Amino acid sequence: MAIYLTETDVTDLLTMEMALGAVEGVLLRQAQGRASNLPRRRLRSAGTTLHVMSGADGDWMGLKSYTVGRAGARFFINLFNAQTGELVALIEADRIGQMRTGAASGVATKYLAPEGATSVGIYGTGWQAQSQLAAVCAVRRVERVLVYSRDPANRERFCREMGQKLDLPVILPVANPEEAAAAEILITITTSREPVMRGEWLRPGTHLNAAGGNSILRREFDERVIERATLLTVDSIDQARLEAGELVTAVEKGLLNWERLVELRSVVGRDHPGRQNAGEITIFKSLGLAIEDIATAALVYEAACQQKRGREI
After folding, report:
1. What is the distance between the alpha carbons of residues 200 and 220, in angstroms, rounded to a whole number?
2. How far apart are CA 288 and CA 100, in angstroms?
3. Which domains does the chain show, CATH number per domain?
4. Helix/strand number for the chain, H first, E second
5. 7-11, 78-82, 210-214: which range is least confident on average?
6. Which of 16, 128, 31 is nearest to 73 (CA)?
């Protein structure tokens, strides 16, 4: 019999360490041919968009479906046992999505950022920004964080709350976006349609996680970023062709070809060497994979069974 897990259940059960392990593990299995992913598809009706993405990872398979409309957003994962075909869990999945999105940036940072990097610049102060910063702090010894968003009050709030939550030595709001780019590890987690990150700001050795946009209409970084990057990684080239506004625009202008992109699984699986020197500028364009959701959901389900959480349905 399947169980139903609420957002409260997920929040109580899922840690960032679990999410990082799930995402890194499933990317390795994908590189080895043991996990498969289908890109997100969208359907629109009556002012609401239905998003569906599915994947399989060993003994687990499933799909995440979510609606976004005037009434807000609702997220669910259907988790199946691949051995039996049985539906084992229906899971409210907003929290899982937040955590695995942050974890993907954490894994990219682990493999691509300079080993000794201790400073982070983050653009965006919303809910998703919390897990982005938490994941990066889990894989690097972060000593200084520079925070930019358009609203000064949001900058101050984010610094206060995340400084306490992550016990950061220094976390400072900055009024100018260029100031945040002085850090060694950068995160953009916005919904902007115009670039918030400009290539002219990037310093040698920078690693950038661009995690805010999964729509052809959004562009978090400009074309100069692409020109300066020595390694440009994505979680899925197929999905990037559909959703990465920055990359699609650059391809259309002849500034980029799709063959230049490297999937993060290739770096995790050691099929690609990743960063090769301290001065390289590396980019991870995150779009989100269903297998990341499925691998994370499987850990949540196993923890729920151990702790007897959830309601039978």
Report:
1. 14
2. 8
3. 3-97+291-312 (3.30.1780.10), 100-289 (3.40.50.720)
4. 11, 15
5. 210-214
6. 128
Mean per-residue pLDDT, 256-261: 97
Q: Which two tokens stand for residue 92?
A: 């409210």
Confidence (pTM):
0.97
The answer to whether 229 and 250 are in contact (CB under 8 A) is: no
Identify the band that residue 116 occupies on the pLDDT scale cut at 50, 70 and 90: very high
How far is Cα 234 from Cα 262, in angstroms, rounded to an integer?
6
Q: Cα(195)–Cα(178) distance, rounded to whole angstroms?
A: 12
Gap between the Cα atoms of 73 and 95, Å rounded: 12
Strand partners, 110: none
What is the mean predicted confidence (pLDDT) over 62-77? 96
Predicted local confidence at residue 266, as pLDDT: 98
The pLDDT tens digits for 262-272 are: 999 999 999 99
Residue 106 dihedral angles phi and psi, to the nearest 5°: -65, -45
Looking at 71-206, which runs of residues are DSSP E strands? 72-81, 87-92, 119-123, 144-148, 170-173, 185-188
- The CA angle 281-122-137, to the nearest 5 degrees, is 85
Assess contact for 205 and 280: CB atoms under 8 A.
yes
DSSP-derived letter for residue 203 is P
pLDDT at 100 over 90: yes
Tell me which residue has tokens 């259907």: 78
Distance (Å, rounded) from C-alpha 94 to C-alpha 217? 23
Tokens of 35: 């996990």
**pLDDT, mean over the chain:** 97
**CA gap 5, 76 in Å, rounded:** 10
Q: DSSP class of residue 259?
A: G
8 Å CB contact between 105 and 133: no
